[in-house]
């Protein structure tokens, strides 16, 4: 049986990927996750023991990582500190996990000759003007803005260097903004949905003109699996589903789908250094690997996501209070 190490498998996108593998493959998945505030073992409930081994640990711990890597056929590396706002208040864990953690995994992959797929973000390319006809491609120069995106850019550079200098069998994917079940309530879409569910109001940074390119998490998973199994070693693939929307429209759509007035939200101060627009051109992935997103209707995906938060309050309620207290202290 193919054994796959998934780092960060108790986080949002990692857990969606583990559920995807359960439905579409017969792999045995080994999840390595530190269970930071962002990791939730409840996201992996329902996965049978014969398909999943869960190990709580830090990817920076080389003594733990090396034997684990020697016991698997491949690695998909999701573990990261992932929230821009947190990186502005304390960059330190971002350096630890995103940079040193990736280095430790690459060294283990080099020593054991293990295939590794590295999960990255479109934010490494910086941002685009609202009226720029261009979108990010694999050839766009790196230009990260935040402590988060600069540590993700650093990790991508390490992967490229280990592939070239040590022939590590690596691929990289840079994906746009994900939404769907199991996303932490600190992030934009679940924050607004759960604010409404607890009787509060959505919070829009600045004027809400910033554009994000939304993809349903399950489509990200199918793309990663396609790259893992058929991608060319040493290559980078951009993943996106042509889902550009400005934040104000997204808040208004959430309010409409939840039966509230379209203007029932608050404006809060803007994020420092706030990237204006991200947009992905995923032609390479689509042409080379035949990948297509399944959830190309944002309103349908958003309705499914709202339903999920409505029916899974026990999954998110414990972290809601602490998250809003943190936002309250930063004025957001
Ligand atoms: P998340 O914050 O929901 O989950 C991160 C997971 O990593 C958590 O389970 C956490 O416990 C674990 N983790 C953190 N530090 C660790 C460490 N030192 N050792 C082991 N585990 C550790 O993040 P996410 O949104 O699911 O993002 C996953 C990956 O996808 C990240 O690499 C992120 O950069 C990338 N990405 C995210 C998005 C998005 O829209 N969320 C878009 C593109 C790329
Ligand atoms: O309450 C909010 N109000 C608001 O207007 C929050 C939390 C966010 N925003 C805005 C900021 C962004 O323009 O919404 C947009 C999305 O914000 P986030 O969910 O924090 O995502 P973003 O900063 O775009 O980064 C996300 O996509 C790329 C992920 O968190 C990253 O991990 C990924 O790399």
TrEMBL record:
Q: Which GO terms describe its molecular function?
A: dTDP-glucose 4,6-dehydratase activity
Catalytic reaction list: dTDP-alpha-D-glucose = dTDP-4-dehydro-6-deoxy-alpha-D-glucose + H2O
> What does the UniProt keyword field contain?
Lyase, NAD
Which ranges carry the NAD(P)-binding domain? 5-303
User: Which CDD domains is this protein grouped with?
Assistant: dTDP_GD_SDR_e (cd05246)
Q: Which Pfam families match?
A: GDP_Man_Dehyd (PF16363)
Query: Do the record's keywords include NAD?
Result: yes
What are its E.C. numbers? Answer: 4.2.1.46
Instruction: Name the NCBIfam families for this protein.
Output: dTDP_gluc_dehyt
Instruction: Give the UniProt family note.
Output: Belongs to the NAD(P)-dependent epimerase/dehydratase family. dTDP-glucose dehydratase subfamily.
* UniProt protein name: dTDP-glucose 4,6-dehydratase
Native source organism of the sequence: Mycolicibacterium chlorophenolicum
